Amino acid sequence: MVRKQELGKVRKDEDKELMELMHCRQRFILLKKKANLTEKQSGYLERLCQANEPIYKAMLLKESFLKVYDYNDPVIVEEYLRDWIKEAIESSLAMFKKIAESFSDKLQYIINWFRKKISSAISEGINNKIKRLRRMAYGYKDIDYFRLKIHQHCGLLNSRRYSH
């Protein structure tokens, strides 16, 4: 989002060189971990960060946030996240302030993940499949048939087991 905002400013100023650096073809470089960039991508990112301070700040905040996964102790994680939230709120980047405030509101839930390493991803995925099935069918009249379709789409029915 920071890249999009900055690109809008650059387009108004008609800075061709910076526009080329911030073009959407390059946006995935901003999403990658710095350690995973190729030499060419690293050079590109360095030029972009030198040319645009908000993008440089955003990159630093992103990279520092990712370091939270280096820790396993929930107490250390909480301390690290509180520091990161403070840093993000103090930044001049509206998007990161918004993210930091959201993290601050949900900090206890985030810390719980580091305590138990359990997520709701599987149940969320199943719920999304059920919603998609319901939309596709425009409402099944037979609830048992709908349950059967849910089981089929969620991999709970093995069709090979029932065919002879």
How would you characterize this protein structure?
With 164 residues, the chain is an all-alpha fold. It has 3 domains: 1-65, no CATH class; 71-118; 121-162, no CATH class. The protein has 11 helices and no strands. It has helices at residues 2-13, 16-21, 27-31, 39-51, 53-66, 74-90, 94-105, 107-116, 121-137, 143-153, 159-162. α6 runs antiparallel to α8 (107-116). The protein is extended and about 60 Å long. The termini are far apart. The model has no long low-confidence stretch (mean pLDDT 79).
Summarize the structure.
The termini are far apart. The chain is 74% helix and 0% strand. The protein is mainly alpha-helical and 164 residues long.
The computed structural class is mainly alpha
Percent range for helical residues?
over 70%
Uncertain runs are none
Task: Note the gap between the termini.
Answer: 54 Å
Number of strands: 0
Strand coverage percent: under 5%
Q: What characteristic shape results from the CA principal axes?
A: extended
> How many discrete structural domains?
3
User: So how many helices?
Assistant: 11
**What Rg is obtained from the alpha carbons, in whole angstroms?**
23 Å
Overall average residue pLDDT: 79
Q: Characterize the largest beta sheet: strand count, sense, and whether it forms a barrel.
A: none
Q: Give, in order, the helices and strands.
A: HHHHHHHHHHH
What structural keywords apply?
164 residues, extended, 11 helices, mainly alpha
Topology:
Blueprint: H1 2-13, H2 16-21, H3 27-31, H4 39-51, H5 53-66, H6 74-90, H7 94-105, H8 107-116, H9 121-137, H10 143-153, H11 159-162
Helix pairs in contact: 4-5, 6-7, 6-8, 9-10
